[in-house]
Amino acid sequence: MVVALNDHLIPLSPREFQFQMTVEQMAGPETVLFVARDGDGKAIGMGALKVHDATFGEVKRMYTDPSVRGSGVGRKLLEAIEAGARERGLQLLRLETGGTPGFEDTWAIYERCGFSRCGVFADYPDTKYNVFYEKKLIA
To answer: Going from the N-terminus, what domains does the chain have, and what CATH number goes with each?
Structure first.
């Protein structure tokens, strides 16, 4: 899944504006990886929750296999990430994604799942190649 995601993302924007977590980083204690599997156990999607502090977490490494896009797998992954954030008492989820053509479907799923565009956060640069979203988890 990670290789497929990287193969998809790398051509879409300049490498210096891409902030993919490595497999080693995804295995760190501050990150929880979620994997969606089909009936045969094959991985068909993934996403991660990176906890930054006691109040906010970040959605990372979201990807669904092209064969299942539009089937709800991405939504279920986001719901699982959100549930994981709530279990940890986080009040806010944020994410960074690409800002160039080719990311339209990505923006659409985040917006359908209740995320709104926001300003830059953490140590990301504010460029035309990056778009930022957030979702408040408290009423």
So the answer is: 2-136 (3.40.630.30)
Give the tens place of pLDDT for each residue, 97-132. Answer: 999 888 899 999 999 999 999 999 999 999 999 999
Q: How many angstroms separate the CA atoms of 119 and 117, rounded?
A: 7
* Interatomic CA distance for residues 75 and 70, integer angstroms: 9
- Cα-based distances in Å from 16 to 19, 47, 121, 125: 8, 22, 17, 10
- For the segment 75-94, the average pLDDT, to the nearest whole number, is 97
Which residues, listed in sequence order, are joined to residue 116 by a DSSP beta bridge? 134
CA 129 to chain centroid: 16
Q: Which residue carries 């490595």 as its tokens?
A: 22
Sign of CA dihedral 9, 15, 21, 24: positive
pLDDT at 10 over 70: no
